[in-house]
Amino acid sequence: MRPDDTLLADENKAPLHTLDIAENTLVLILAGGRGSRLHEMTDRRSKPAVYFGGNWRIIDFTLSNCLNSNLKKIGVLTQYEAHSLLRHLQHAWSFLPRDRGQFVDMLPARQQINESMWYRGTADAVWQNVPIMQEHYKPKYVLILAGDHIYKMNYMQMLRDHISSGAKCTVGCIEVKRSEADQFGIMSVNEKLKVQEFIEKPANPPSMREKPDSSLASMGIYVFDADYLYQSLAGEVLKEHTHHDFGKDIIPRALEEGVLYAHPFERSCMGRNAEGSIYWRDVGTLDSYWRTHMDLVTEHPQLNLFDQSWPVRGLPTQTMPTKFFYKHNKQGRVLDNSLVNGGCIITDAEIRSSVLFDHVTVKENSIIDSCVVLPNVTIGKNCHLKNCIIERNCIIPDGMKIGLTPKKDAEHFRISSGGSVVLVTRAMLDAVAQESSGSQGAPEQV
């Protein structure tokens, strides 16, 4: 037995085994958000369902963390544009044996309070599922996660820390630059990691005592004693002025009651870069989504997708091999620092520093440079794409150049807030085609 397989929750209690913790823990993944800063990428899917890394959806990282942490009682709370996410969960995550008490259950928003009442916030989403939790799951601990971040974490370690500290609520935290801390819930802690102060998105964030240029930020990851969670949610729903939100309502309440502790991500991070630094990314903007993919194609990426000691699972697809065929440019350097998924056909084209998802076709004399190309895209002949995100099912016509002339790109496509990334969707390309055909005059009636 490994040293960490048992935990003394109290000196007067028997040791608590890791399997006992897993058996008594329900995981709830909040996956209902749109992710509006990804613009058209989330018009038809929620942010957790967005494609990532050539072979996954964003939520696969959170779900893989659960399985790798031996936590296999999971509920996924969905709301906005849930079809794509629900289909992915059904196809990719329905393998857990329910007869062993293991499952990934889907908990979509439903009209149960009145005809217009959906999930009103993160806390309300959990509150509306409390009857199901009490009747069917009966957990002792509830682990609440966000389904829209890229990271590797051993949640079991956080649960151990929660139990050993005697906390009623534990919040996962990560060190961030103080200059960026106004986007997070920020806390200060004592030497025992008991939270002394918690401020949601402060204009003047408090710094860490040892590091004046850094702040301690909430990751939106919480462990609750189930009874305390039910009590807190029941009290909150009765208030007139509430945001129905964990960060704004439930966590400050736990702080006031003196039962809130912090868990540093440093203690449970399972995905470190070559230098040993922890890895956690919010890919909620076009710029961050693109930059994170560009890191994947470097020699030593910050995130190791090939690490089998903490594997990332997703939808296993049986595709044909990728085919590279060069009739003319046999001597040139045509494939450089890229990730190319299965079922792609590359013919006499140059692929540089790009991520190609499955079933992408690139035809003769085209150049794909620093692009993220989602599934089922066809790129015609003599195209040149640079710094682009190409949405699923796009057909790029012959000779099209995108990402080379920003002013011209802005007329037809979405330019990121940072100004360096171009998002291309099928609707945008259809509009360009209609504009082009209109400028040529109406066709003759035959």
TrEMBL record:
It is an enzyme of class 2 (transferase). Keywords: ATP-binding, Carbohydrate metabolism, Glycogen biosynthesis, Glycogen metabolism, Nucleotide-binding, Nucleotidyltransferase, Transferase. Alpha-D-glucose 1-phosphate binds at residues 119, 185, 200-201, 218. InterPro entries: ADP-Glc_PPase, ADP_Glu_pyroP_CS, GlgC_bac, GlmU/GlgC-like_hexapep, NTP_transferase_dom, Nucleotide-diphossugar_trans, Trimer_LpxA-like_sf. Residues 28-297 form the Nucleotidyl transferase domain. The record marks 79, 118 as: Could play a key role in the communication between the regulatory and the substrate sites. Its EC number is 2.7.7.27. Pathway: Glycan biosynthesis; glycogen biosynthesis. SUPFAM superfamilies: Nucleotide-diphospho-sugar transferases, Trimeric LpxA-like enzymes. One of its GO terms (molecular function) is glucose-1-phosphate adenylyltransferase activity. The keyword Amino-acid biosynthesis does not apply. Residues 321-422 form the Glucose-1-phosphate adenylyltransferase/Bifunctional protein GlmU-like C-terminal hexapeptide domain. It catalyses: alpha-D-glucose 1-phosphate + ATP + H(+) = ADP-alpha-D-glucose + diphosphate. Homotetramer. Involved in the biosynthesis of ADP-glucose, a building block required for the elongation reactions to produce glycogen. Catalyzes the reaction between ATP and alpha-D-glucose 1-phosphate (G1P) to produce pyrophosphate and ADP-Glc. Belongs to the bacterial/plant glucose-1-phosphate adenylyltransferase family. PANTHER family: GLUCOSE-1-PHOSPHATE ADENYLYLTRANSFERASE, GLUCOSE-1-PHOSPHATE ADENYLYLTRANSFERASE-RELATED. This is Glucose-1-phosphate adenylyltransferase. It comes from Uruburuella testudinis.
